[in-house]
């Protein structure tokens, strides 16, 4: 097959402006609907159900078929190649179906650019084409990307076997969609006085993903539990979709967790963006796999080759610490509860809380998030977050992870299928996952 690799000049032409121009310096006009109803679904607490195994992997099902909230839990062990191979073996049919549906959906939905993306990205995709942009993104980030990512993807493709729908490029480009589109999301980290009603709680962390709800994504949610070989980091989870590498949501066996928000509405505290660097979904996964605490995550974020504009959150249940990060090519600012920005009447500070809703300069959503955090201050719990905070803010349409980092539980909700009543993740039943138990699952034949 003839190579379609773009020239360095073309990469520079398409992406060069992003080095000097960030997102539009305006504020988001969105806000949640004032009439909302609480999520009264009980939390599903049954253990995952074993499905099948291969030499370096085990497949379980989380959630309940009766509640229509099931998702795959895929355990993999070994080297990057071996873990990828096991994922390919276990999820061959699902990955083939997902990838086979994904690219036609994305190309068909282009028009002037998918409506779920900000206008400037819609225009960029419409003018150049998604395949070209992803190829350019791959070329711009490849020099900064360690070989273990490619080893895992090659392993996955080999594990799937010969199929016209799945090849290295299709899986690699899938992993870069987040770099190109980011998504709008919400997060909080709450500790100390904010959660003092429950003596067992030390640090509670929210990650709510708002992204695409119309394509094949809702049909293929998957939680991957990585058990890398000794000496190659910790066991950790990554919540996404079948065939997805990188991380946008997840938790590690050393009681750390990640949150992330794509930023489109900035102010003068932000710097520049770039496509040349290390994809942020890879950075977030490296934090889960290799960093022991918040300080190591700060060092990683300060020294990595950063790219697009994001807010990140990293929590550590060992020390009950949470830090938020203002992250782009030229800026890395670290926030706690005392220096949280932006400081405005619609985004006030609270002791022992760091939070953002949907974007940086987004008064409509942040006002509601702040009012709900104030309402439950001192009594912020998993249950109150599910029942009232998320429904009021109306964030987390695609999936939501609430991390109880002290007690090592994750509470997960995924979007319902097309046609499902109240299908947003914030409207649906949550599943409790015992993370200690997940990380202690043994390798096949042990």
Plain-language structure description:
31% of the residues lie in helices and 22% in strands. It is globular, with a radius of gyration of 20 Å. It contains 12 helices and 16 strands. By secondary structure, it is an alpha+beta fold.
Keywords:
31% helix; 16 strands; alpha+beta; 6-stranded antiparallel sheet; disordered N terminus
Mean pLDDT: 90
Through-space gap between termini: 43 Å
Overall geometry: globular
* Unreliable parts: 1-24
Brief overview, please?
Helices cover 31% and strands 22% of the residues. It is α+β, with helices and mostly antiparallel strands and 446 residues long.
Annotate the secondary structure layout.
Layout: H1 8-15, E1 49-54, E2 57-62, E3 71-78, H2 80-90, H3 92-108, H4 119-128, H5 130-141, H6 147-160, H7 168-181, E4 184-191, E5 203-210, E6 221-228, E7 236-241, E8 250-251, E9 256-262, H8 280-290, H9 294-303, E10 310-316, E11 321-327, E12 332-335, E13 353-357, H10 363-375, H11 382-393, E14 399-404, E15 409-414, E16 431-434, H12 435-439
Parallel strand pairs: 3-6
Antiparallel strand pairs: 1-2, 2-3, 4-5, 4-13, 5-14, 6-7, 8-9, 9-10, 10-11, 11-12, 14-15, 15-16
Helix pairs in contact: 1-5, 2-6, 4-5, 5-7, 10-11
């Amino acid at each position: 097959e003839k190579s379609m690799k773009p020239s360095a000049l073309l990469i520079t032409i398409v992406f060069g402006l992003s080095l000097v121009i960030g997102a539009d310096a305006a504020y988001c006009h969105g806000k949640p609907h004032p009439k909302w109803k609480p999520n009264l679904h009980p939390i599903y607490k049954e253990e995952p159900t074993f499905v099948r195994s291969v030499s370096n992997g085990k497949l379980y099902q989380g959630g309940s078929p009766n509640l229509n909230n099931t998702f795959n839990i895929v355990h993999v062990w070994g080297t990057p190649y071996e873990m990828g191979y096991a994922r390919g073996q276990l999820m061959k049919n699902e990955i083939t179906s997902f990838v086979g549906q994904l690219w036609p959906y994305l190309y068909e939905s282009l028009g002037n650019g998918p409506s779920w993306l900000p206008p400037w990205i819609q225009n960029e995709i419409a003018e150049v084409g998604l395949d070209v942009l992803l190829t350019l993104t791959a070329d711009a980030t490849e020099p900064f990307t360690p070989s273990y990512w490619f080893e895992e993807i090659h392993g996955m493709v080999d594990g799937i076997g010969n199929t016209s729908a799945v090849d290295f490029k299709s899986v690699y480009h899938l992993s870069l969609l987040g770099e190109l589109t980011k998504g709008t999301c919400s997060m909080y980290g709450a500790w100390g006085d904010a959660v003092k009603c429950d003596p067992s709680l030390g640090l509670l962390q929210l990650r709510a993903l708002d992204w695409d709800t119309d394509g094949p994504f809702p049909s293929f949610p998957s939680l991957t539990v990585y058990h890398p070989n000794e000496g190659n980091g910790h066991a950790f989870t990554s919540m996404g979709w079948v065939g997805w590498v990188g991380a946008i949501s997840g938790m590690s066996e050393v009681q750390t967790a990640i949150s992330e928000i794509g930023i489109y509405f900035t102010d003068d505290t932000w710097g520049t963006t770039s496509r040349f660097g290390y994809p942020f979904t890879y950075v977030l996964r490296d934090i889960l796999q290799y960093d022991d605490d918040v300080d190591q995550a700060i060092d990683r974020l300060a020294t990595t080759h950063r790219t697009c504009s994001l807010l990140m959150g990293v929590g550590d249940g060992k020390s009950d610490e949470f830090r938020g990060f203002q992250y782009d090519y030229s800026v890395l600012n670290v926030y706690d509860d005392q220096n949280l920005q932006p400081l405005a009447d619609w985004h006030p500070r609270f002791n022992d809380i760091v939070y953002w809703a949907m974007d940086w300069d987004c008064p409509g959503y942040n006002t509601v998030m702040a009012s709900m955090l104030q309402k439950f201050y001192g009594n912020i719990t998993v249950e109150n977050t599910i029942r009232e905070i998320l429904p009021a803010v109306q964030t987390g349409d695609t999936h939501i992870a609430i991390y109880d980092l002290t007690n090592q539980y994750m509470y997960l909700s995924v979007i319902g299928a097309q046609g499902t009543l109240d299908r947003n993740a914030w409207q649906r039943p949550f599943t409790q996952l015992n993370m200690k138990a997940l990380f202690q699952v043994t390798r096949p034949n042990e």
